[in-house]
Amino acid sequence: MKIPAELKYTKDHEWVRIEGDIAVVGITDFAQGELGDIVYVEVETVDETLDKDEVFGTVEAVKTVSDLFLPLSGEIIAFNEALEDEPETVNTDPYGAGWMVKIKFSNQSELEELLSAASYGELVGA
User: Can you list the domains of the chain with their CATH numbers?
Assistant: First the structure.
């Protein structure tokens, strides 16, 4: 199980990569492994401004559907449309091509609430 040190994490198993005032968000290697084969990713919140911890979409695997929770407050400015045709990319490359949304985040202090790789590793028993 990979937990890249340069990323931040949430207790809901999302990862966050900060690029200036934009946050790129996806689900962790642990999460995709727990879900199994992902067959559909749905995000209908592009161009909406949501609060931290609000549901921004869902990920559907063969056996279950899970909500996706926003790790930071802000406007969802992009959805990875490649996932519409190839949702399994979340399984094969969760930290790269399997990213889900980009957020223009609005509250810098929320970054401090995200977990480090080490803290996330402890959470999932890695």
Answer: 8-109 (2.40.50.100)
